[in-house]
Every structure is written in C-alpha cells, then in structure tokens.
Amino acid sequence: MIHDYRLAREKMVKNQLIPRGISDEGVLGAMGKIHRHLFVEEALRGEAYNDHPLPIGHKQTISQPYIVALMTEALELKAEEKTLEIGTGSGYQTAILAELSRTVYTVERIGPLLEKAMTLLGQLGYTNIYFKAFDGTLGWQEHAPFDAIIVTAGAPKTPEPLLEQLAEGGRLVIPIGNRYSQDLIRVTRTKNTFKEKNLGGCRFVDLIGEHGWKE
Ligand code: SAH
C-alpha cells in the first residue's frame, strides 16, 4: 500500500492540531516537516499520522501528535536556548525540539531505544542533539541549567533534580499523577519561585527511576 505521507502530515496539522488550539507557527511548522513515519516500525507507518500513540517496542510508545504539539508549545522554545528531554523513546519529540532550540540534551533509560533514536536522528542530519543512556530523573547535571525541560513519561511528582537544573525564566513540562492517568503540568521558574499551571489530562508510560516510580 502506498501512502502519501506529506498529505498525511498536512491533514494531521489541519485536523488534529489547529482545531484543538495549537497556534505557535514554529510548532506547527516542525510538526508539518518532521517525517513521523520514520520513527515507527515499517508495519505501523501507515498509522503514523493518526490521532493516537503507537508502540515502539520495550513496552514504550511514541506520543500522540497532539500531545507532542501541546507539550512543545507549552515549552515556549526560543532558537538560542538549551533544552533537556527525559525519555527519548523513538526520538520523534527530540527532532521537534531540535528544530526549535539551539541544543537538545536527551536522556533515555533503555539503551537499545536510545541507540536507535541516535542512529535515525544522525541519518536525518541533526548535529545539535546530545544523547545519554541514564536515569533521567537525575537530570543531566554537567549541562545545567536548561531553559526548557520536557519529561515524556508520567511521574508521581516533579523530580527535585529537574527543578534544580531549570534556569531562571525556564519552563518545565511533565505529566504528574498515578500510574494510569496524569495531568500535564507546566512549571515556570523565576529566581526561587516555581509557578504551576495545569494543561489538562493525559496518559503516559511510567517514568522509572530514583525520583520516579520503582520498576
Ligand atoms: N518522546 C518519546 C516518548 C517515549 S515514551 C516519543 O515520542 O517517542 C517514554 C520514554 O521514557 C520511554 O522510552 C521510557 O523508556 C523513558 N523513560 C522512563 N523513565 C525514564 C528515566 N528515568 N530516564 C530516562 N528515560 C526514561
């Protein structure tokens, strides 16, 4: 079966993102540009632009397009900024971040997923992404502070190291809740105060680690 992925991408932006309130031109542009079908296995490519998450192996998922857009928009990325991503997974969200920030630091606890994402993103020509196989609930201390931090797995609470590694004026987006459902929370830091905003319900796989869920 032959798929017109360009058309599928246009439809995704037009039918799933814009009607639900995504308006940031940078975010819409990146979502319309990145070849999402390359981030899932061949048998699932025809579904890559559908309005739901898809399995990527190791019991993990690539997030639904709308959720990727919502989280990215909430990060308010600027082209000269430094972003930290926890939960590389397929690397799709990583590519979106790399389009909109100067440098992206991405951390994934499952080695083979990280390797695969690293290979693909290299093939796609990205030179502004740094990868690490590690427990991302500890952040990435050597490169802190970060202007934006995104966590793409659900946590019981915001890991303390991530709050510490957030720059003044920085934004952090993370799903917080129990293991079945979460709320997407945006934390904004001004010097020593952290302001929170709830962006609505969502469902993510577990954030597993020292400051997350136990395995
Ligand atoms: N943004 C990814 C989402 C992947 S699912 C995408 O769209 O493809 C969430 C990912 O978080 C999984 O790959 C999981 O292994 C990873 N993860 C869970 N806990 C983690 C931790 N403590 N540190 C780093 N990665 C973690």
Q: How would you characterize the overall build of this protein?
A:
This protein is of the alpha/beta class. The protein has one domain: Vaccinia Virus protein VP39 (Rossmann fold). 28% of the residues lie in helices and 28% in strands. The protein has helices at 5-17, 25-33, 65-75, 92-100, 111-123, 160-164; strands at residues 54-57, 60-62, 82-86, 103-108, 129-133, 146-151, 166-177, 182-190, 193-202. Strands 5-4-3-6-7-8-9 form a seven-stranded mixed beta sheet. The longest helix is centred in the first third of the chain and has 13 residues, at 5-17. The chain is globular, with a radius of gyration of 16 Å. The relative contact order is 0.13. The mean pLDDT is 97. Bound molecules: S-adenosyl-L-homocysteine (SAH). The site of S-adenosyl-L-homocysteine has 26 residues, from strand 2, helix 4 and strand 4.
Secondary structure elements and pairings:
Blueprint: H1 5-17, H2 25-33, E1 54-57, E2 60-62, H3 65-75, E3 82-86, H4 92-100, E4 103-108, H5 111-123, E5 129-133, E6 146-151, H6 160-164, E7 166-177, E8 182-190, E9 193-202
Parallel strand pairs: 3-4, 3-6, 4-5, 6-7
Antiparallel strand pairs: 1-2, 7-8, 8-9
The structure holds S-adenosyl-L-homocysteine.
The site of S-adenosyl-L-homocysteine has 26 residues, from strand 2, helix 4 and strand 4.
